[in-house]
Amino acid sequence: MGKNAARFSEDYGKQWVKEDPEKEGVYWPTEEMKKKAHINNKEIYKEAREDPHEFWAKQAKKEYDWFEDWDETMEWEPPFFNWFLGSKTNLAYNCLDRHLEDKRNKAAIIWEPEPLDEEKRVLTYQELYNLTNKFANALKDLGIEENEPVTFWMPMVPETAVAALACQRIGAWHSIVFTAFSPNAVKQRMEDAGSKTLITIDGFYRRGKVIELKSQIGDVLEEVDAENCIVVNRAGTDAPMKEGRDVYFDEVMKEADSYCKPVEKEAEDTGFLLYTSGTTGKPKGIKHSCGAYGAQAAVTMKWIFDIHENDVFFTSADIGWITGHSYALYGPLSLGATEIWYEGSPDYPDPDRLWKIIEENGVTQFYTAPTAIRALRQKGDEWVEKHDLGSLRLLGSVGEPIDHDTWMWFFEKVGGGRCPIVDTYWQTETGGILLTSLPGIGPFVPGVAGPAMPGIGYDILDATGEPVEPGESGEIVIKGPNFGPGMLRGVYKNPDRYEETYFSEFGPEVYFSGDGGVKREMEIAGQNLLEITGRIDDVLEVAGHRLGSAEIEDAVDRIDEIVEAAVVGEPHDVKGEVPAVFAILQEGVEPSEELEKQIVNVVREEVGPVATPHVAYFVSNLPKTESGKIIRRFLKGLVRDTELGDMTTASNPECLAEIAEKTGYDGPQEIPGYNA
Fold it and tell me: Fewer CB within 10 Å: C terminus or N terminus of the chain?
């Protein structure tokens, strides 16, 4: 076993949780954890309930710096709302400038490249500040102005953080696209945002190979009539560059001035766009504010991960997702914390890569997805056991519900049975974690996310809009106006879609999450614990990533031989679920391996590798309502071996026997012509 970098810390190896003596599988913070934690008194829930808005206003003033105070804490005109009206601040200032007096030489980002023979980079707060200022001026030199959208197609490299902070400094919006999405996905997002600038990279490392980005994006840049493309030269691939449009990151930095004054932004000004999948149409451009979002990120980072001065925080989340925005960038840096950024695959070159990073850097909090935990668990316990993980004080789960066995393995093998697991529930739309147990209060229960954060109006409703009783399941909502300050401020250029998607199911005062849950009997300070059961709409959760069925179906429908397609999530031991395609072929066309390959290729090209279909079922018909809408819940039941429900709601229920045969359905439902 190796030696942990923090083995001489007074907190090393301490027991932070204990099991309830009367309730098996329920854990509580120890006295040591209560003493350490920022929040350790459950009365905070009661305090927040009395005046939720003033409660959050108090926290925002405490954890965030403002150039000007607000005149009004919250404005609520259902379904629209605003926070901290009249105030002014800057997200980059809160992440950098305010730390220079006492943290200038403290490590801000420790970057771990994937190649083991390459040295890690450590950026102090002073160095990150210097680079951000220069790149902010470089953006202005290229003509990029306040309130202008800038698209990123970037991996987890330090330049991504620099560029994002630089955008915040000058008041531009960034729109970051996950690198596993296709060039076409980048094009869609640039067109929707009206972006004329792309920041990308020549290539980066993944599983020992260079993944080239710049060489793939040339046609897209022409099609969107891009004015600027800034390229980070990471892998030395000699990427194609167009004179007058394409410039290298290092080159623009050379000419830039060293100081850029941060723009004073109102709390409700747009800070960034982040596109997320929906059940219909193209991805939605979720608008997040500047100051209100930043304040929520800072507060939730401090409370939920219990960040202290000498901590080292590590999340495996990618910057292309909201977790990467809130808890790999803005949350940690706003608190002046030290964090790890890792470029590559979690199991390269060996399955202990993450454990090695934790050990060598003395990581105190580790935040990852159940998909990653399941994948590493399958590799064997020996990969964990060869490392000293005694510096860990807290573990976190994100992106999808975590099952009991995965939770227990994470708790026992990675946390040594010592650390609380904060099972965090939130969405791109909420901007930050709004439902989880707090480390100094608890409880920590396998498979149960916990109570809503103080002051947040989470509840579970039945189909009529009434709260369910403890032990019952329903739809997860947030009752307005008790929203977090960092909640979405709309869908870019589409207010109708904002209302239709989030505020139509139960009316304009109730935010509809699209997720299902169970209200547990157990409560803390009058708040029931909530268990998340997953999506109830046509959005897939693949390895913790949200993908719209419509995006994948649109790609498959491009194949001439296919008349119509439907996509649902099929269970997968590691990824949680994977896309399963049901396709109706043109008359005279026979199923073939070649068609299966076409389906895979077109989805990878149009949506990205993350959406790669796991299986294709060629069928003669799909279950539909009288109005012609595909009934995907029947398809989900068939691939998950669960109840289908009332099959008479389909205008063509006879097609279900054939589909059940194709999927090998082994569930409880009797299907005429198949098992009945």
Answer: C
How many whole angstroms separate alpha carbon 272 and alpha carbon 319?
Answer: 13
Nearest to 387 by CA among 423, 424, 421, 362: 362
Residue with tokens 């990533």: 545
User: Interior CA angle at 530 toward 45 and 321, to 5°?
Assistant: 95
Mean pLDDT of all residues in the chain? 93
What CATH number is given for 548-663 in this structure?
A: 3.30.300.30
CB count in 10 Å sphere of residue 14:
15
Domain ranges of the chain: 17-90+273-533, 122-263, 548-663
Provide the whole-model pTM. Answer: 0.87
CATH no. of 17-90+273-533: 3.40.50.12780
Per-residue 3-state assignment (H helix, E strand, C coil) for 578-639: EEEEEEEECCCCCCCHHHHHHHHHHHHHHCCHHHCCCEEEEECCCCECCCCCECHHHHHHHH
**Residue 544 backbone phi and psi in degrees, to 5:** 85, 0
pLDDT score, position 643: 87
Name the H helices within 468-559.
Answer: 495-502, 549-556
Which burial class, exposed, middle or buried, applies to 327 when counting CB atoms under 10 A from its CB (0-12, 13-18, 19+)?
buried
| Range scoring the smallest mean pLDDT among 276-285, 416-425, 428-437 | 276-285
Alpha-carbon span 402 to 415, nearest angstrom: 16
Q: What are 475-528's pLDDT values in tens digits? A: 999 999 999 999 999 999 999 999 999 999 999 999 999 888 889 999 999 999
